[in-house]
């Protein structure tokens, strides 16, 4: 789903350049949003917890650009990026982080449970592994309805060791479902290195053959690579070729959640991965490939303006009305369990 | 016209009624299609509706309920079988943490019109891991509707209501009832969820029962009649929504309550009924609030021991006599 | 001598006390060793006891509890952490169907001296999947002992008792209490399971509470004092074994009962207490049996909404006033 | 754990011949027991349900002979064979099937839950997959205690698709546990063919690499093969070499449970597998290899005599006393949940 807006400055770009600009817009917007979210958490405005995708933006970006508007995204508590990448307005996401009535879930979900069905963002799930089987269900429904929709399901490296992963991958293959499983391997669970608790080196890719799937490992910090692998896998799913499992190697710049400084990670590992930062690197590549810097600056300025506006809107929004706490347990809009 | 059919066959008939009516209804589970279910309660459905709508799965309870949930979010009305209700434990995260909370967490963006059918309860000498009555597990989870029919007619009417309901429903079929028979009218049957049925009117004591406990409560009421005690028997039919009106009105008349449940002692739905009555019609009560339950013990396999545990007619009779002392 | 420490630090101290004492005690869980736990409640244990006795696991809750169960059968005394009590759902088969039933099914051949520690309850704005109070889930399963301390001293004493107990214990640490402080005596602390504590004597109404609800019940009792109502507050400390004696004796004196629990409305442990009292001291009662609970709704994330739901001091005060009308 | 009893007739056998005679004794005893169990089920004496290992005896036999007396067996509801193979007396097993006080579990377990801790039979688990993580626990404990014990865990092909399988295999490898996982691939779950619901051809072996394990497929109907693979895997585990996953191909002669006639299976498949019956085939091989037929006849006669005696004892045994239903919930022997 291209986010490219054709303007005066970008009118003459090739379609490939448009796509790459769209990818850049995605990573820049996510970066700007996540940096702000961190700041607001430290200010005490984001309550509870918050899991950022700083450093991991390219994965959401590549898929965000490659997906069709009616495809389905299933993601985790680390889901700001994936929700935004589908076009969910920043103000609704920021409002949800701040627990405001203006949030996409009216303040009931919070940072870990962003959902915008209208944008194909089918929910952020906070129980490790739970959404893999659920993504299958959406894919099954698309298959039955013949809609051509594809479900894309994002999860972390640590998630590959829970039972639901196994059950979901097997069923996806047996039913030949139009689903793409994307493991964001950022090398860590919360604080434990994935290598310390996993029987194989590549937690997702080394399991692919157990489900009759191809082993795919890609550079999750490269927007071009992510866009390509996403396009291929989505196309395969859409055309009846069944599921894929992609392991995208990446790294989070910060800690697992909240104010975690991530000190359990070796300094040289952090330093090495910071050199692979998808945002400046992609910017440099686009410039090297001849894209006009002013176009990139426009994108950056717009992203920051959007984040500012979303922040202002969220700060200004009222908290949910207490009565709202009693709504939407049931389809009738209410919460009564008795007659 | 009416027909005498088994509870088991009523399940197949109820499913067929809804599969015929609504093409978005799909049914999945382990051994449900080609084999017609391990309890033979879904025989003939594959033949009539084909392998796309009636589908066998691997032994992957989380994958089964995940498939149902994701499909329900996106336009289907899935019915998923979890073969024995004990196995709900292997997919409890889906049942208790994903399915019931998603509508609320998304502030109503997501609807989950799905049904989880499962064979519940003891009496078949299957031992502690295939005999549990766990309808209280489901009742304790906000966001789930909970249904447990006691007879073939209700199986059809309540299953239809569950499938048409826009919210997730856990549908408990009592496995000891599968071979029992009952009159079922011809044509479509459709009930409303949350309506209890007063299966036997009475004056002196209200006996509230569910599923397999309903026939036992009725038998006890008949015995009590002989002892000069007039017992009213209520078949709850649903735990959520709960027909508190029928229960409370009855207790207001009889002033005495006995609940009869197959759940083990602690935190069963009987405790919930007692608590509602104890708070809302306390001043009408003339005797202690009493529950008949399975003891708080894993169910033993041996027939001699299992029969000791499941609430019997005589234990119900005794409880009713006690509250009338 | 005594020391003022947090509930969080009491967990580490309690575990250290038992790890030091008994070399068969082993402790496993996600991020519990090197990181000292996501709530920092197990800091320092790896350093003192080494990686064989304090061990990080993959994100595999079934594997964690399976390891604990198999080890307990064969000579160890494992303590397993399930990080949030919500995650018990992902290994509920182990918790509800394997661990509690095995001694019984084997007629006593197998002992399972193990403890499942888990962070329970709301108040941290974590939303519906990381905030559930589920001690009633555990209480409803025959074969599990269930403990939930309300203060640092009890954390140590009850954790020691749980670890030394020959039966499986689910140990609920209330996550909203982790930062709270309390006086803890020096030296070894060891309590007995199944003994409630009357934390505040009173004459007019018995308020039964657990864990995070204990300080709120005490605050309510203080407010009630100002309104001329003398409330007795009981901290249950354990749900199984349940100290029914303390509760019943209190209600016999006060004639009125209010339970205060974080569980959602239906089938909580409050209903069990109400039912026991409603049956066993019915004739002593002078007012309706009343429960204060979280409404039967998944917990919302926003602070404004979450605060609306968790039982507050003012709701407890109102409930006590109501039963005294 | 050799079951060979040295008698006049077997004194001069080589140690290999003694082992093979032990294997034959195992398959014959299990066969005789299972045939009787079926008959008693049809007579209504075995209540509830019963899952037989008819046709699958060689797996239990091979392991039974290869294990040390203090090793641990974990099996499923289809566990008569494995429980007997560890030396659990037939009378106690038969008594349990009939729900008598004389049963190994006093009638509380039933056919699906045979346990004899004294004989290392650590339980028969009736929830698919549950016992794989539990077997890890026993292996972990053996590792910690330095006891040299090994845990052997049996399960079916259908079990490879449930989450607990995945979690257990990963942890076993990561912790290098002394555990042997044995998949009895009898081609069917209850009534559904495993191939219909599994993403790979060999449900266990094709998953081995996902846990860094060797792929092992063996003829589960050959007692010699089973003994050898068992010996190797157990030795590896005992010497600190970590876990193994073995897929043993086999077939059940009858249906899944109770009176299931197994009609969902193609006739030619059944006929083909009946020619691979481990009992007569192994008998023929032993004769061909020069073992004296009278020795085999002795073994057979003894097996039938033991089954008869066990049946008589069980039939004669009283049902459990009702009071026993209230025992052994807790370690104090009782069931009280209140003070
Ligand atoms: C079933 C379950 N177990 C544990 C947790 C706690 N938890 C939340 S995030 C996390 C780490 C997940 O690691 P990974 O899958 O690599 O994702 P990442 O956070 O690195 O994106 C854990 C253990 C959980 N939410 N659910
Ligand atoms: C979690 C769970 N799901 C379903 C069942 C019902 N069930 C009992 S046996 C069985 C088939 C198991 O097949 P397999 O693992 O191949 O073992 P086999 O019976 O062939 O030895 C099923 C589905 C169960 N006991 N537990
Ligand atoms: Mg990670
Ligand atoms: Mg099989």
Short characterization:
The complex is a heterotetramer, with two copies of chain A (339 residues) and two copies of chain B (325 residues). By secondary structure, chain A is an alpha/beta fold.
Describe the structure.
The complex is a heterotetramer, with two copies of chain A (339 residues) and two copies of chain B (325 residues). With 339 residues, chain A is of the alpha/beta class. Chain A has one domain (16-311): 3-Layer(aba) Sandwich (Rossmann fold). Chain A is 41% helix and 10% strand. Chain A is built from ten helices and six strands; from the N terminus they run H-H-E-H-H-E-H-E-H-E-E-H-E-H-H-H. Chain A has a six-stranded parallel beta sheet with strand order 2-1-3-4-6-5, with helices on both faces. The longest helix of chain A is centred in the N-terminal third of the chain and has 28 residues, at 15-42. Chain A is globular and about 60 Å long. Chain A starts with 14 loop residues before the first helix and ends in a 23-residue tail after the last helix. Chain B folds into two domains: 2-185, Rossmann fold; 197-323, Rossmann fold, CATH 3.40.50.920. Chain B has helices spanning 7-21, 45-53, 61-73, 92-98, 102-105, 135-139, 152-164, 213-226, 244-254, 269-280, 303-309, 313-323, and strands at 2-6, 25-29, 54-56, 77-84, 115-120, 145-147, 169-174, 181-185, 197-200, 205-209, 231-235, 238-240, 257-264, 290-294. A seven-stranded mixed beta sheet of chain B has the order 3-2-4-5-7-6-12, sandwiched between helices. The mean pLDDT of chain B is 98. Chains B and C meet through helix 4, helix 6 and helix 10 of B and helix 4, helix 6 and helix 10 of C. The structure holds thiamine diphosphate (2 copies) and magnesium ion (MG) (2 copies). One thiamine diphosphate (TPP) sits between chains A (78, 126-128, 155-159, 184, 186, 188-190, 256) and C (30, 59, 61, 83, 87, 90).
């Amino acid at each position: 789903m291209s986010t490219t807006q054709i303007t005066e400055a970008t009118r003459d770009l090739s379609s490939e350049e448009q796509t790459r600009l769209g990818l850049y817009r995605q990573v820049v917007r996510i970066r700007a949003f996540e940096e702000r979210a961190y700041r607001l958490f430290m200010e005490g405005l984001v309550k509870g917890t918050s899991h950022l995708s700083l450093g991991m933006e390219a994965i959401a970006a590549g898929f965000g650009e490659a997906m069709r508007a009616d495809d389905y995204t299933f993601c985790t508590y680390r889901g700001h990026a994936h929700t935004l990448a589908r076009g969910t307005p920043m103000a609704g996401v920021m409002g949800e982080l701040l627990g405001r009535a203006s949030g996409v879930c009216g303040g009931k979900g919070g940072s870990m449970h962003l959902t915008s069905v209208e944008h194909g963002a089918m929910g952020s799930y906070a129980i490790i592994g739970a959404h893999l089987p659920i993504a299958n269900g959406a894919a099954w429904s698309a298959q039955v309805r013949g809609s051509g929709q594809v479900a894309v399901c994002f999860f972390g490296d640590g998630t590959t060791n829970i039972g639901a992963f196994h059950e979901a991958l097997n069923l996806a293959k047996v039913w030949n479902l139009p689903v793409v499983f994307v493991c964001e391997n950022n090398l860590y669970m919360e604080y434990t290195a994935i290598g310390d608790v996993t029987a194989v080196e590549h937690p997702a890719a080394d399991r692919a053959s157990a489900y009759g799937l191809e082993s795919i490992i890609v550079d999750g910090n490269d927007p071009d690579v992510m866009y390509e692998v996403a396009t291929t896998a989505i196309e395969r799913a859409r055309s009846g070729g069944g599921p894929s499992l992609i392991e995208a190697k990446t790294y989070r710049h910060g800690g697992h959640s909240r104010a975690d400084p991530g000190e359990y990670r070796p300094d040289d590992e952090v330093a090495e991965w910071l050199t692979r930062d998808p945002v400046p690197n992609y910017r440099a590549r686009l410039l090297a490939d001849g894209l006009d810097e002013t176009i990139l600056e426009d994108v950056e300025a717009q992203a920051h303006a959007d984040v500012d506006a979303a922040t202002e809107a969220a700060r200004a929004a009222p908290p949910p009305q207490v009565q709202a706490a009693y709504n939407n347990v049931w389809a009738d809009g209410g919460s009564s369990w008795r007659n | 016209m009416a027909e005498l059919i088994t509870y088991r066959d009523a399940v197949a008939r109820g499913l067929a009624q809804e599969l015929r009516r609504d093409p978005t209804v799909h049914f999945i589970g382990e051994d449900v299609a080609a084999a017609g279910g391990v309890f033979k309660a879904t025989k003939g459905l594959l033949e009539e509706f084909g392998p796309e709508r009636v589908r066998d799965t691997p032994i992957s309870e989380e994958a089964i309920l995940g498939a149902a949930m994701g499909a329900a979010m996106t336009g289907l009305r899935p019915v998923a079988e979890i073969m024995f209700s004990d196995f709900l434990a292997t997919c409890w995260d889906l049942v208790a943490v994903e399915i019931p909370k998603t509508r609320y967490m998304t502030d109503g963006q997501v609807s989950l019109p799905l049904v989880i059918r499962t064979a519940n309860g003891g009496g078949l000498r299957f031992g502690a891991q295939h005999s549990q009555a766990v309808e209280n597990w489901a009742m304790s989870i906000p966001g789930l509707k909970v249904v447990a029919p006691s007879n073939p007619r209700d199986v059809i009417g309540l299953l239809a209501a569950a499938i048409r309901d826009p919210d997730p429903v856990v549908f408990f079929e009592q496995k000891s009832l599968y071979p029992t028979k009952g009159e079922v009218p011809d044509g479509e049957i459709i009930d409303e969820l949350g309506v209890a049925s007063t299966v036997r009117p009475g004056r002196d004591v209200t006996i509230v029962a569910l599923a397999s406990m309903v026939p036992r409560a009725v038998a006890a009421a008949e015995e009590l009649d002989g002892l000069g005690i007039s017992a009213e028997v209520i078949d709850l039919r649903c735990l959520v929504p709960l027909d508190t009106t029928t229960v409370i009105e009855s207790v207001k008349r009889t002033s005495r309550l006995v609940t009869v449940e197959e759940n083990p002692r602690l935190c069963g739905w009987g405790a919930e009924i007692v608590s509602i009555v104890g708070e809302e019609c306390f001043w009408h009560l003339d005797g202690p609030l009493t529950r008949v339950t399975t003891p708080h013990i894993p169910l033993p396999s041996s027939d001699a021991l299992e029969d000791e545990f499941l609430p019997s007619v005589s234990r119900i009779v005794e409880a009713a006599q006690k509250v009338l002392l």
